[in-house]
Amino acid sequence: MANITLNKIRHSYTADIEKSGDWALKEMDVVWQDGGAYALLGPSGCGKTTLLNIISGLLVPTEGRVLFDDRDVTDLPSDQRQIAQVFQFPVVYDTMTVFDNLAFPLRNRGMAPDMITARVHEIAQMLDLEEVLNNRASGLTADGKQKISLGRGLVRSDVNVIMFDEPLTVIDPHLKWLLRSKLKELHQQVKATMIYVTHDQTEALTFADKVVVMHDGVVVQIGTPVELFEKPNHTFVGHFIGSPGMNLLPCELHNGEPRFEGHTIGVSAPFKMPQPNAQLQIGIRPEFVRFAEQGLPVDIVKVDDVGRYRIVETRINNQTIKIVSPEGISIPADKAHIRFEQESTHLYADHWILT
Amino acid sequence: MSEKTTNQKAWLLVAPVVILVAFNALIPLMTVVNYSVQETFGDNVFFWEGMKWFEDVLHSERFHASLLRQLSFTGIILAIEVPLGVAIALTMPKKGPWVSVCLVLMALPLLIPWNVVGAMWNIFALPDIGLLGKMINGLGIDYNFTQQPMAAWFTTILMDVWHWTSLVVLLAYAGLCSIPDAYYQAARIDGASRWAVFRFIQLPKMKRVLTIAVLLRFMDSFMIYTEPFVLTGGGPGNTTTFLSIDLVKIALGQFDLGPAAAMSLIYFLIILLLSWIFYTLMMRNEEQ
Questions:
Q1: Mean pLDDT of all residues belonging to chain B
Q2: What class is the B61-287 domain?
Q3: How far does B285 lie from chain A, in Å, by closest CA?
Q4: What is the β-pairing status of strands B46-48 and B38-40?
Q5: Contact residues on chain B for A53, CB-CB shorter than 8 A
Q6: What pLDDT sits at residue A19?
Q7: Is residue A281 predicted with pLDDT exceeding 80?
Q8: What is the mean pLDDT of each run of 10 residues along chain B (288 residues)?
Q9: Domain coordinates of chain B in residue numbers?
Q10: Residue of chain B whose alpha carbon sits nearest to that of A136
Q11: A91: nearest Cα among B225, B187, B207
Q12: Which of the residues B189, B202, B205, B207 would you substitute to probe the A interface, choosing the one with the greatest number of A C-beta atoms within 10 Å?
């Protein structure tokens, strides 16, 4: 069990990095607390798997160090790092039984047979695999195979961290939910650090205590689901998380106050002056936009009723502003005024929040 | 749904295949069957002999000897080519510029016509002028494949290994390339040894292609004719006279068409039977 520290990690898959500058991971410092349930969230190709493979030792980073507590493990191979990884497509050893699959990592480490048997049964019980222990692993369904992959990580009592690389991609939708709550439950039981890679925000937000959002090789924010929702550090977090995502409206500064379409907008906190050429945007989540007697005049374009609330699409000049309106609030017919809740309105310069 | 339409014209669509199969398989086969139960002295005059030729062939010591030679040859080359092919495939690079180089090198022997392979090795192994023959003799080993049965066998097997191991390599390589990286990564995390990776990941994933490889090599080597015929002509004596060479000697050398036809049919049935047994055994494992 250990805290995992990534110290100034950078990685590139191209050999001649000085020339191309093509970093798959840009410089980052991240600390993963021991015992935490983390989700690593980001769109495909943003570097999530690269980061995961660096922690697990399948990749050696181009620059930077990986520390498990104070031990530098950057150059250690995977099998000496006490980590476990569950891959996107279930990996089982086809010719072995479920029991042998689970026992495999222990046998490779030379554990005594009776201890192996005890441990495998214990884990099989946790994962509800006891009834199929003597079946050939190749005959199981995808979710059963994925449980075996997970089990091979859990049997080792010394694991520092279990990593999941989009583990539910090939699982049927109704089983996804079951397996996800199983993971959550296991996290409570075994108390190992878990890092869960996904591009699905629902999966990330339900599984994790802390979500690490990545975008284009950069960790843009680490925070609890609530923090990501209420105060996104980066416009990417704003529109990637939430459904619909954050409204991002271009604005300029006028006497030190942000102005949008000729209206002064109040923001949550005082801010430092940005660079003169910075691209300024106001970010406001649709949940915090209200209809009001006065304020920004908008045209109502479309209303989608999605059950418990309605999504109202409004327009001012060429800018679209979405509003999430709870049930029971009447929506004006075609013209309306709206206002933004000040404590949830943020100002972004070149996509990063201004504070 | 509407009723099935009946249209006899559909037969026209299958007719080409039926005709093709009839002319290249059924009719020749039936001719052989025809010869195998009759005696002929030419001029299309036939005498009914019944099962006599079959009984003769099955009791013939000459046939037993060729069959034994054939089985030994096939057994030996399979025992060499399959493990060697897998071993070479394992050492081939998975990506990078060397992949195509290796593949082309591997494919080269397969592109050479069989009689050319025989001729090449004949010259290569000649004890007085051949590079290989001269070298072996230069090492102080008495080697002459035209006179010594052991040397003739050694050369024939070496030639076949040279010619056909590539096929096993290419098939095994294709099997290896189809294994997703995640398997190797998981094995590394599980602390698996190199041997365990081979035994529990690579071998099971290669099983299907290896089944095909062994079947192909079995059938081809069991029917081998051109290469040993060009290399040794079946000699010295009869020591490298495999079944097909013997068959041609009987049919075209001695013009005993009846026994030759009976022998072809027995030969054919042996190949069919062995292939079937082998395939069933390999596939039965799969289903468990």
A1: 87
A2: mainly alpha
A3: 10
A4: antiparallel
A5: 185
A6: 66
A7: yes
A8: 76 91 88 83 76 83 89 94 94 88 91 90 88 88 86 92 94 92 88 89 89 90 88 83 86 82 89 88 70
A9: 61-287
A10: B288
A11: B187
A12: B189
pLDDT band at residue A30 under the 50/70/90 scheme? confident
Q: Is A170 on the interface with B (CB under 8 A)?
A: no
Given this model, what pLDDT does residue B51 score? 82
Q: Tokens 């990501």 correspond to what residue?
A: A228
Identify residues of B whose CB sits under 8 angstroms from chain A CBs.
180, 182-183, 185-186, 188-193, 196, 200-201, 204-205, 288
Q: Nearest by CB to A95, from B185, B189, B204: name it.
A: B204
Q: Which two tokens stand for residue A191?
A: 């108390």
Q: Which residues of B12-37 are buried (b: 16+ CB within 10 A; e: fewer)?
A: eeeeeeeeeeeeeeeeeeeeeeebbb
Whole-angstrom distance, CA of residue A198 vs CA of residue A104: 27
Report the residue from A96, A105, A108 with minimal CB separation from B193: A108
- Among residues A182, A190, A212, A266, the alpha carbon closest in space to that of A41 is found at A212
Structure confidence by residue, pLDDT tens digits, A147-157: 898 888 888 88
Q: What is the pLDDT of residue B285?
A: 67
pTM value is 0.76
The per-residue pLDDT for B19 is: 92
Domains, chain A, with CATH or none: 4-235 (3.40.50.300), 247-353 (2.40.50.140)
Q: What is the 3-state secondary structure (H, E, C) of chain B?
A: CCCCCCCCCHHHHHHHHHHHHHHHHHHHHHHHHHHHCEEECCCCCEEECCCHHHHHHHHCHHHHHHHHHHHHHHHHHHHHHHHHHHHHHHHCCCCCCHHHHHHHHHHHHHHCCHHHHHHHHHHHHCCCCCHHHHHHHHCCCCCCCCCCHHHHHHHHHHHHHHHHHHHHHHHHHHHHHCCCHHHHHHHHHCCCCHHHHHHHHHHHHHHHHHHHHHHHHHHHHHCCCHHHHHHCCCCCCCCCCCHHHHHHHHHHHCCCHHHHHHHHHHHHHHHHHHHHHHHHHHHHHHHC
ipTM score of complex: 0.76
Answer yes or no: is pLDDT of A68 > 90: no
